[in-house]
Specification:
12 helices; alpha+beta; 442 residues; Heat Shock Protein 90; 2 domains; five-stranded mixed β-sheet; two-stranded antiparallel ribbon
């Protein structure tokens, strides 16, 4: 009886010790989980704020300076009255963007840039008041022209430059935050290993599965968060269709209509419609190569009408690869680079050629131009930017975006490579896996 009570007592003590051991093991895990989720939450909120800041800043019209200067000139020469002018709307829209940005950025330098932008807007309002006052006198026309030339055009340039700098440094901060995310993941991994060692010391057998049970979901969640944050950034950049392309295309359509070129207008409107339809494509991220070629064809048809004196193009892609998969809007940004940084920079224009074929294990699509090309130093910078995740905000960023989306969807062994020579042109090679479109997860 005594032995029975003692055994029960020992069992009770052992159970208590096990429960205490579980409790001791549970405390660092709870603290670790709180730390991880809090860090993820704070990082995600900060990232969302910066994305919102960039999106809000992008609402500032890229043509603000041109539009404001032109509207001011129309007002001075009497083509429009103040009541019919777009100047109040332009000022109101610009001020709304500047005010909205104050709620997002916590960067001291960007706050100073917003304060400068606000000061420039106040100056523009002052100049508009002076021009209105001068218009009451017939002999003040020259005074107004001096205000337009020496004040308005300078301040609109400063305002446009300030907003562009704001967007540049906010994008740069996004990259810093992404690096911090990676560092946080490494810290999380280190803490996980420390907990694993602690549990292994306390209970040898249980440590084989308990730490994994606790840390693996967190690690997977961190990885998924990283992947989703990167994908959100790329999809945001992908979704922003270049406003200049749209504006310039619409301007070209208007000029063609006024010139009576009905067939050209019909062709451009049809190509623009096809361009936007394939850009949206029901929200699909992965499309067939055939659909992607239709998209870039629409783009080139529009650009050839606009740049008919300097641009020719050729698409020679074998139909055998039409049904294979490619990330949406992959070829068009490369073609756009070829046009704006290759063909337009070469005297006399040039040609863009798109070819594609399959090898044994993968698909190759080549975009070649015979434009200005790049010297060895610039080519090394571009290649380095693609490899080391430090894209230049000019040419490299578009290529970097395309390359990262290919790697994100298909793996690091796929992507783009580039070769170039001065005055000989540039070749961009797109390497893709042989995956049929119907086999891609929607």
């Amino acid at each position: 009886m005594i032995f029975g009570k003692r055994a029960k007592k020992q069992d009770y003590q052992l159970a208590s010790k096990i429960r205490i051991s579980y409790f001791v093991l549970l405390i660092p895990n709870i603290l670790f989980m709180i730390y991880t989720f809090h860090s993820l939450w704070m990082t995600n909120e900060r990232y969302k704020d910066m994305l919102s800041s960039v999106v809000t800043a992008s609402e500032f019209s890229l043509d603000f300076k041109e539009d404001f200067d032109y509207e001011t000139y129309l007002l001075i020469v009497g083509n429009v009255t103040w009541e019919d002018s777009d100047l109040p709307r332009l000022l109101s829209d610009a001020r709304g963007v500047v005010e909205g940005l104050k709620d997002y950025t916590d960067n001291h330098d960007n706050q100073k840039r917003l304060a400068s932008a606000e000061k420039y807007l106040n100056n523009l309002e002052t100049y508009m008041d002076r021009i209105k006052d001068n218009q009451q006198y017939e002999n003040r026309y020259e005074d107004n022209m001096l205000i337009w030339e020496n004040d308005v055009q300078i301040v609109t340039s400063l305002l446009q430059e300030t907003i562009n700098e704001y967007i540049y440094y906010e994008n740069k901060q996004l990259q810093v935050t992404e690096a911090e995310n990676r560092a946080m993941f490494l810290r999380t991994l280190e803490i996980s290993i420390a907990i694993f060692v602690f549990i292994l010391t306390c209970i040898v057998l249980m440590s084989l599965w308990m730490p994994l049970l606790i840390t693996r979901p967190i690690e997977e969640q961190v990885k998924e968060e990283q992947k989703q944050l990167r994908k959100a950034e790329f999809e945001l950049l992908q979704a922003q269709i270049n406003p200049h392309f749209l504006y310039n295309t619409l301007d070209a359509i208007v000029w063609s209509a006024e010139a009576g070129n009905q067939k050209q207008v019909v062709s451009m409107v049809g190509s623009l419609s096809d361009f936007f339809r394939t850009s949206l494509n029901k929200g699909k991220e992965i499309v067939s190569i055939k659909e992607e070629l239709q998209h870039v064809t629409s783009y080139l048809e529009i650009q050839q009408i606009r740049y008919q004196d300097i641009l020719t193009y050729e698409i020679n892609v074998t139909k055998d690869i039409y049904n294979y998969s490619i990330p949406k809007i992959t070829i068009q940004p490369i073609v756009e680079n070829a046009l704006y940084h290759g063909i337009k920079n070469r005297r006399g224009g040039g040609k863009i050629s798109i070819t594609g074929a399959e090898s044994k294990d993968y698909i190759i699509i080549q975009v070649r131009d015979d434009g200005a090309g790049m010297d060895e130093r610039r080519l090394a910078e571009v290649r380095n930017g693609l490899i080391h995740d430090n894209p230049d905000k000019s040419i490299i960023y578009g290529l970097y975006n395309v390359n990262e989306r290919i790697r994100l969807n298909f793996g690091d062994e796929y992507g783009i490579s580039i070769d170039s020579a001065p005055e000989k042109g540039t070749d961009v090679i797109i390497k893709l896996p042989k995956i049929l479109t119907e086999n891609v997860k929607k």
